[in-house]
Amino acid sequence: MPEVIIPGPSGRIEGRYHHNDDASSPVALVLHPHPKHGGTMNNKVTYNLYKAFAVNGFSVLRFNFRGVGRSEGEFDNGFGELTDAAACLDWLQKINPDAATFWISGFSFGSWIALQLLMRRPEIEGFVTVSPPANMHDFSFLSPCPCNGLVVQGTEDSIVEEASVRKFTDRLNSQKDVEIDYRVMKGADHFFRDMQDELLDHLSQYIKIYSEPLKRRGRIKLDKKRRQLPKTS
């Protein structure tokens, strides 16, 4: 689990990177929760997202957003954090030019940033989110949602209401050719206290099943104009 320093738009970005020796291995990027509420790349949920990808043959990066840990810069209300994530994806592409596929993942605030990046980058073909803050942010930009994904939510989450996440996933599943696997963990709070092993099982199971066809397919040429959000600056 080597430490890496990545050049970012606001200075250096601190990360941890697991590299799979197979050049065609799929690649994943993991985003942590809100920097102003103690979120870091070492958060337990964030680490288990990272671990779930690593054990299923992915090269995977988790990193600290600007102003967190040794990453330079200051919190930027999601705008700068999105550019941090984009810079990290650029770095992953540079060192994994033959990757079969790219996935994006995030927990809470990190889910919001991850899904915005999904809409900007056509090379991303899968997503895994935990507790996306559907009661705090407008996710209508996922129209249409370009790929399938997993959403995991706890019933006892006092920060992100389960009803709001269910409504969000129902809306996505109503779209044509999109399948969102929505998994509700009974008794889980926002941080999945005492339920990390069960969470890891859900994450790993989904990643294993849905990444296998993409691994076998190998790398494909993507239309980079397929989707794009308006610029945030």
Tell me what the structure shows.
The chain is α/β, with parallel strands linked by helices and 233 residues long. It is globular, with a radius of gyration of 16 Å. The model is unreliable at 222-233 (pLDDT under 50). It has an eight-stranded mixed β-sheet with strand order 1-2-4-3-5-6-7-8, sandwiched between helices. It has five helices and eight strands, in the order E-E-E-H-E-H-E-H-E-E-H-E-H. The protein has a single domain (3-217), classed as Alpha/Beta hydrolase fold, catalytic domain (Rossmann fold).
Write the layout of secondary structure elements.
Layout (H helix, E strand, L loop, with lengths): L2 E6 L2 E8 L8 E5 L12 H12 L3 E5 L15 H17 L6 E6 L1 H12 L3 E7 L18 E6 L7 H12 L6 E6 L10 H22 L16
Parallel strand pairs: 3-4, 3-5, 5-6, 6-7, 7-8
Antiparallel strand pairs: 1-2, 2-4
Helix pairs in contact: 1-5, 2-3
Q: Could you provide a short overview of the structure?
A:
The protein has 233 residues and is α/β, with parallel strands linked by helices.
Largest sheet: 8 strands, mixed
Helix content: 25-40%
Strand order of the largest sheet: 1-2-4-3-5-6-7-8
Give the overall form. globular
Q: Which stretches of 5+ consecutive residues score pLDDT under 50?
A: 222-233
How much strand? 15-25%
Structural class: alpha/beta
Radius of gyration equals: 16 Å
Question: Can you count the beta strands?
Answer: 8
CATH architecture: 3-Layer(aba) Sandwich
The CATH top-level class label: Alpha Beta
Question: Can you tell me the CATH topology?
Answer: Rossmann fold
